[in-house]
Amino acid sequence: MTTVTTRPQEERKTKFQVWRSRHGWTAGVWLLLIVLVAWYAALLPKFGAFQINSILKNSLPLVFLAIGQGVVVIAGGIDLGVGSMMVLANSVAALLMEGQPFAMTLLIGVGIILGLAAMNAVVGWIVSVSGVPDIVVTLATLFIYGGLALLILPGPGGGTSEGMRWMFTGSTSGVGTNFWPPMIVLLLVTVGVAWFMRRTRPGLSLYASGSDLNAAYLSGVNTKKSKVLSYAISGGLAGMAGLAVLALTNVGDPRFALAGQKTLESVAAIVLGGIALTGGVGSIVGVVAAGIIVFFLDLLLVAIGLDSNTSQVVQGVLIVVVMMVAGLLEVRRRRLE
Amino acid sequence: MTTATTPETGAKQQGRLSDLMQRRPLLVLTAVWIVMILITGAIEPNYLSYGGMRNMILFAAPLGIMAAGQTILMLTGGIDLSVGMIATAAAYVAAFQDAGWIAILLGVAVGALAGSANGVGVGVFKVNPLIMTLAMGTILLGIFSALAQTAFKGSSSPTGFIKAIGTDWAWAVWVLVAIFVIFMLRRTGFGRLLYASGDNPVAVRLSGVRLWQVHISVYALAGVFAAIGGMMLVGRTGAVDLSLAVNFLLPSVAAAVIGGTSIFGGIGTYSGTIMGALILSVLNSLLGFLQVGQAVQNIAYGAIVLGLSWLYASTTGAGRR
Question: Which of residues 234-263 of B touch A (CB under 8 A)?
């Protein structure tokens, strides 16, 4: 919305004001992350490679989900099924990968990512041809994917290869101080998706469809294809999130409660990251920081000395407060325009 | 609704069945319900008895009451994904009281409070209802996970009155709620306001209605319905735990969707939702007799919501744009 419109008074703005209005929120979120990490570091007796590794590898699943959610929301939809897809990928991977060599698990992993991307592309297709809103369709898929996961893996079990664990956690046992592998995976995905969204024709068409579906359709964007593409991307990224969870815990966990929780967190992360739920506005780079923050709050609240139930309440309240502030800002912006 | 203009939804051929669905949805739903009862009876002959029908009502009544909240919310364009947790919370509070009326009042108060909080978030702060109510569910889960280990420790003993509304008098409670909701939607200004604010919020706002007040009251009312449903559940099972009403969340949405209530707002009736709840109750027994387990049940509910909302969108042409 704001990125494409050119209003007359905007020409009088200085370069800094333009930068602030375009990237201010993203920069602010990263700043918030740095401040929170600094606070956490001050609370602990020792802060080093181990803590950095722990923050990075544990926030990977949520960051992947949030990036996928971000892509769908930018394209004008919302995908409530991401949490279930993560659980499904995690369960299938754990079942298939147990006892396999690294090369085989890598192949299975790629297969799961592509498979989920294809399955969710069908969901995107259903949304675009049925006229049923995204929320209803993906509320249904939240339960369908979740049911599939339970069907495939009725209880916790399975495992993965050491190489797979190293790729997402930096150590073959899942605990260690080497934070480079998770950081490189995170950077690759972030840069890849951000570049795709901002610098390629299909990526920009996602922004166009989300900003104004009719205008995009009339200017020749294949809006149906955009919808399918955005859901395929969120499916693939949810698949990666599932693999990252498996690498962390070395066990498949089909619990349904996890799916709803992660879906909520992914939506919270994109709103905090500056993506408008109305579509067409926001950047993937901000979402990455926001995803880390949403996970990180948990660590921080425990470090302050809250028990896990209280920290869940505080986290929920914080999510609501963030949404309320974002809602008020949105109302104010509309009044100004 | 806005007029359908895009080629996707405009030129669907209208078959006889879809024509019937459009004009007499209750008739079609009742036919589906009866056919499903017969199918279930064919698989498990015991179902076609007083006991079987009683079980159907015992499941459908709390579901139908929770779905009443979902229906009035969907009419205004909202949704409540915290019904399950509000119901559980009310059940916890009510099950640990000694006096019957105080228990009911406290339970209802919990529902009204949580619902109002949802309403404030949605109506005043313009938070997406989905996010607001999902977060409310998380918050309540956290609070009651903690309370279950402290204030509400040990086994609960619901009073005789709560047991009565959960079992023998479940139908009566449901009838009362149904009369109230149907009267409210058809005969009162508030009911018309619900339809109007879901159909065209801008027009409603411009004609001088304070929408935030409508939102707060409708979410509070939905919270009260969820609380009543929760107390009926604990009255039936006799014991309360954190997953008491978890499996009622999607069915409550599904019952309203099956009954023809549009998630876009402005379209729908409670009588449709009642049929939806009855149909889901039969389906629940059917899946139970087939011994398919929770996984297949989740898939089935998801597929029903998806399939039926697709069917409605294509028959009524009420899809978006």
Answer: 250, 253, 257, 263
